[in-house]
Automatic annotation (TrEMBL):
Its main location: membrane. It is a multi-pass membrane protein. GO terms for cellular component: plasma membrane. Keywords: Cell membrane, Membrane, Transmembrane, Transmembrane helix. InterPro entries: PG_synth_SpoVB, Poly_Biosynth_Transport, Polysacc_synth. This is Oligosaccharide flippase family protein. The chain crosses the membrane at residues 12-33, 53-74, 86-107, 127-144, 165-183, 189-207, 228-252, 284-304, 325-341, 361-381, 388-409, 415-433, 445-472, 478-500. The lineage of its organism: Bacteria, Bacillati, Bacillota, Bacilli, Bacillales.
């Protein structure tokens, strides 16, 4: 294969993987809306209690183990790609998966007790089975990625997410119709995950065999399984950790929120319902964070240590542009969502419960996209272990803050804890990145103009809300939908006009944005 063809395949595969990742996250965010509508806040709470565990399983299957396997196979050379090697890798992964399965299965009563709800024992026990299906799909994703062939991973990821969403919604419908108990939503999530991983495995296996990626040759030497623990298991965990910012925040809430609310004075049923209401913010946070960070990173070519060594000034400019895009997107999304949250809450979840605490939670959007972007940049410089450590420590910061703040301020305490934790992680990433860049200034942003642009948008949206109140019945969901969509479009236009007219983005910075660039020329 010529270099040009190989490069085209790599770029095409990388784009397919990026697009599949974004679409999967969007699907993941959106299916939870009908899930809550059908099962109520208690059903949504139950799902969100087991979701972080399922999320960890899918991070290992999608990002962690495949990337670690791909790197290991690349380091060992093509001659080592053979069935015996693959079986050894599969064996060490399956051993780790069995360990996770047994730990979660046997300790489920203890974990449910820590979560403050003994009814979660069976749901936790059931979702533990998902870990046993990870090695199958992870192995073949790693094999194909080692050949710089990303399409199988991208396609299998889309298959997984669509199947999961479909089966979970079917389970929610059965609960809504009274055929299943509300806590059975966790069983539906488990069944959906197992079926999704199984079908994904069958697809990628057939896809791989058809294209002869599997090598039937024999090895000149064998590698002891113990030698695979570090490059596959440990490396896989580190890589997975770097994709878990919001997942870890949800994991901390799963273990600390209900006990904290019980201490605050709520009954168990009130606490579980409150947790379900608070979890409404997660799909919105996930959607904005993924779209914002992916958009910023896609507009600017990836920054790596090699780029830095070749052209220091060009690399700094790319970093500044990436962070500037990210901040403008984050500020606009945060202010817009904060202003419209009562209507968004009513539209998506059928009432305005929890709006005040969810508005506080929305403030974390100022930092989540920037946190993901700075972490990705640090990983490009080779600081993957450090970004994973920072996230892991962030989990414990969130746990401690929840422990102290929720008994004092209830659900608002959980929101404040999330915002504070994300700020701490973001600032730590920023300080580490600044150290890597030898103190070069990273943010070159006209902050006053950005603040004024966001205030102008907020004022415009507030005036629009007050005016629409006299002409639209917000009890009508279709009318409310049209109002929210219209408000989002108008808010974006107002914000974009101020950004362009006040030269918050320069002519060169507008170049990758055709629509805004056209406005500028106009």
């Amino acid at each position: 294969m010529s270099n040009d063809k190989q490069n085209n395949q790599v770029y095409r595969g990388a784009f397919a993987l990026l697009l599949a990742g974004i679409l999967s996250k969007v699907i993941s965010a959106f299916y939870r809306i009908p899930l809550q509508n059908l099962t109520g806040d208690i059903g949504f709470y139950t799902y969100q209690q087991v979701y972080p565990i399922l999320g960890i399983a899918f991070m290992l299957a999608l990002y962690g183990f495949p990337a670690a396997i791909s790197k290991f196979l690349a380091v060992n050379g093509k001659e080592q790609h053979h069935q015996k090697m693959y079986i050894s890798i599969f064996t060490v992964m399956m051993g780790f998966a069995i360990f996770l399965f047994l730990t979660l299965f046997l300790l489920s009563p203890v974990l449910a007790n820590w979560m403050g709800d003994h009814l979660l024992t069976d749901p936790l026990r059931h979702v533990s089975w998902v870990f046993l299906f990870i090695p199958f799909v992870a192995l073949f994703r790693g094999i194909t990625q080692s050949d710089e062939w990303m399409e199988p991973t991208a396609y299998s990821q889309m298959i997984e997410q669509l199947l999961r969403a479909t089966i979970i919604i079917v389970t929610a419908i059965l609960i809504y119709q009274g055929h299943l108990h509300v806590y059975k939503i966790a069983d539906g999530a488990m069944i959906a995950s197992i079926i999704a991983l199984s079908i994904s495995f069958i697809f990628i296996y057939l896809y791989t065999k058809k294209n002869s990626t599997w090598n039937d040759g024999h090895s000149s030497r064998s590698i002891p399984i113990s030698n695979l623990i570090s490059p596959v298991i440990v490396a896989g965990l580190i890589i997975s950790m770097n994709h878990m910012l919001l997942l870890l925040m949800q994991l901390a809430d799963a273990f600390t929120m209900v006990p904290g609310l019980l201490t605050f004075g709520e009954t168990l049923r009130e606490a579980t319902a409150t947790k379900g209401v608070f979890d409404r913010g997660q799909p919105l946070l996930q959607l904005v964070t993924v779209v914002g960070s992916s958009f910023a990173m896609a507009l600017v070519p990836q920054v790596t240590k090699i780029n830095w060594q070749i052209s220091r000034e060009e690399t700094i400019e790319k970093l500044r542009l990436t962070t500037k895009y990210c901040i403008l997107l984050s500020v606009g999304a945060t202010v817009g969502l904060f202003t419209l949250f009562p209507e968004v809450n009513q539209l998506l979840f059928q009432n305005q419960l929890g709006t005040s605490s969810l508005r506080i939670l929305t403030l974390s959007l100022l930092f989540t996209s920037l946190t993901v972007t700075t972490a990705s940049t640090l990983q490009g410089f080779g600081y993957m272990k450090w970004t994973a450590i920072i996230l892991f420590l962030g989990l414990w910061v969130k746990m401690v803050l929840n422990y102290f703040l929720i008994p004092l301020w209830g659900v608002d305490g959980a929101a404040i804890a999330t915002v504070s934790t994300v700020i701490i992680i973001c600032m730590t990433n920023f300080l580490l990145l600044r150290s890597v860049l030898n103190g070069d200034r990273l943010f070159v942003i006209p902050w006053i103009k950005v603040i004024i642009a966001s205030l102008v948008m907020a004022i415009a949206l507030t005036i629009l809300k007050q005016t629409a109140f006299y002409f639209i019945s917000f009890e009508n969901r279709i009318a409310l939908f049209l109002f929210v969509i219209g408000s989002v479009i108008i808010g974006f236009i107002v914000y974009a006009i101020v950004v362009v007219k006040w030269r918050i983005l320069t002519r060169n910075e507008l170049a990758p944005l055709p629509l805004l660039n056209r406005w500028k020329k106009g």
